[in-house]
Amino acid sequence: MEPPWGLLWLLLAAASCLLEGKRSSVPHGIRVTYSSATEDCPGLPFFSAEGYVDDQLIIRYESHTKKMHPWVDWLNTLEKEEPKFYQRYLSILRNDQEDFQENVHMLQKLYNQSGGYHIVQMIITCEVWEDGTKSGRWQYGYDGRHFLKYDMGTSTWYTADKIALGIKLEWENETDFMHRFTGFLESTCPDWLEKNDHYGSNSSLRKEPPMVKMSSRTEPEDGMEIHICEPYGFYPREIDAFWMRDGEVWLQDTFHKSVAPNADGTYHYWLSIRIDPKERDRYRCHVEHDGLPEPLDLALKVPQSRSNLWYIIGGVVAGVIVVCAIVGIRIFLNYRPSLATFL
């Protein structure tokens, strides 16, 4: 069975418009993910595929629509100007859907599993540096564990068990199959980047401005205040958010987390600061993003006092959360997706 190339080739074409103007110290990356399960469940269809360029989602395919949903404007232009090109890869993706559905049931049989929820995933990555150096990886997983991995740069395999080893040996004996690994890295990736440069000159990324939530609390030990600024729902990923005091950037007693993706393809961020409540009016949360017409400067909120009633309500809610968390963990341990497998 051949690897799924539909979305991969389309994404290679996509990357050309996003690789301009980047710093040479950072490789330009393409990441394609496939996921296929034995059962449909909320938020996770039987089969889905997503494509990213430099960690930004640009396209998603889902089994229940059997369509590619563009997340960048230029793909709509591509569909109009080269409909045969676009439809070709849509057709290949639909074939990939059938193949992956067969693969997850095949692994279920190989592991002697009679039923239940099982999931197969695959991640393909390609990195291209400004000097032309290339690297790539194929990673597979089954039921939330690493299963099979191949590093195209070093020709190194990783196998989790005897079943994965058997598949690896089968692949190594197929000359045409192995040629696709090297062909993707040495030819397909750079060729498609170069082919579609012109689409990037007249297109722009989807832009979703961040919404910002401000929250605060008082530390009972010393009366100091913790203020949290949470920009969320923004796209693309790049955002500048920091604390300011008296109009100047302030780094003292500040904390932050890395930008993280949401389920809908947007991103969220989180930063906090610890201050003396007497100086609250001196601080602002400053947010800059391509989706905003102008930067935001948000004042800190006064922490809300908590009565005993709210502590009681909080305890009840916490109990419910604990129960839900236990159930959620059990579901996650049984059903969580990870790096994936294609047979």
Largest sheet: 8 strands, antiparallel
Q: What is the H/E string?
A: HEEEEHHEEEEHHHEEEEEEEEH
Question: Which class of secondary structure composition applies to the elements?
Answer: alpha+beta
What portion of residues is helical?
25-40%
Q: What shape does the CA trace take?
A: elongated
SS elements, strand count: 16
* Spatial strand order of the main sheet: 4-3-2-1-5-6-7-8
Q: Which residue ranges are poorly predicted, with pLDDT under 50 across at least 5 consecutive positions?
A: 1-24, 307-313, 320-343
Amino-to-carboxy terminus distance: 7 Å
Distinct helical segment count: 7
Question: Can you walk through the features of this model?
Answer:
The protein starts with 5 loop residues before the first helix and ends in an 8-residue tail after the last helix. Helix 1 (6-15) crosses helix 3 (83-110), helix 1 runs parallel beside helix 5 and helix 2 crosses helix 3. The strands form three sheets. Strands 4-3-2-1-5-6-7-8 form an eight-stranded antiparallel sheet. It has helices spanning 6-15, 73-81, 83-110, 162-172, 175-195, 197-200, 308-335, and strands spanning 28-37, 47-53, 56-62, 67-70, 119-128, 134-142, 145-151, 156-159, 211-218, 225-234, 240-245, 248-249, 254-261, 267-275, 283-288, 296-299. Strand 2 (47-53) and strand 3 (56-62) form a beta hairpin. The chain has 343 residues and is α+β, with helices and mostly antiparallel strands. The model is unreliable at 1-24, 307-313 and 320-343 (pLDDT under 50). It contains seven helices and 16 strands.
